[in-house]
Amino acid sequence: MRGKTWSKAIVLIAAGSLLAALLDGCSSGTLKTADGRDAIARDKGDITVKSENGEMKIKTNEKDGTVEFKGSDGEGGTVKIQTGTSELPEDFPKEAAIPDGAQIVNTMKTSTTDGEGYIVIFNVKQSAKEVGDFYRKTFKEQGFELSEFSEDSNITLMGGNDTHSFLVGIAKNEEDKDGSTVTLTYGTK
Q1: 37-56: per-residue pLDDT in tens?
Q2: How far does the signal peptide extend, from start to end residue (predicted)?
Q3: Which of 165, 164, 6, 166 is nearest to 77 (CA)?
Q4: Are 187 and 166 in contact (CB under 8 A)?
């Protein structure tokens, strides 16, 4: 069930992004289905998409560049996705530590009836090995199961426990050869 919820969330994001692009430049308006029902409505920066499974609202904040998607997961629950900010969400779990000095590039938070998920992309002035060591130590100290895959200077760590899961992808930063770019995916149940 958890995989279905995430798959639906990804489809919602893709559909919402496509619809936003199609309606770009319109301050307001409605697209209708062949039988005359409202399917997509835009009111300034907000878009509402209606379907037989419910509706999804897309809200954009032009001041900070964030986008929020909120809708039904098709199973009676809701999905909420926030993306586009370079700040950690206020409720970001302390277990999902970020190394000191990290420059956050983007964050995304999802909320479903199954739990919360976070994706944080950041750059650090540390090698992939140093960042890998940081996460190995951090997650082992918390008693998480840990698996690893390494190729060249890229490291992928994954694991978790009964209530938390994580995936950390670490790669050499193409702009700062001494640094790394990290994608941290962290979920709570």
Answers
A1: 556 666 666 777 777 767 77
A2: 1-20
A3: 6
A4: yes
Query: What global pTM score does this model have?
Result: 0.69
Helix (H/G/I), strand (E/B), else coil: 180? strand
Domains (range + CATH), the chain: 1-75 (no CATH), 86-189 (3.30.310)
The token duo for 129 is: 């090995």
Chain position carrying tokens 């919820």: 5
Query: What would the pLDDT profile of 3-15 be if each residue is shown by its tens digit?
Result: 444 444 544 455 5
What CA–CA distance (Å, rounded) separates 128 from 136? Answer: 12
Q: Six-digit token pair at 186?
A: 């962290």
Q: Which alpha helices (H) appear in the chain, and where do they start and end?
A: 2-22, 128-141
Q: How far apart are CA 58 and CA 65, in angstroms?
A: 13
User: CA-to-CA distance for 99 and 89, rounded, in angstroms?
Assistant: 16
Most distant pair of Cα atoms in the chain: their distance: 59
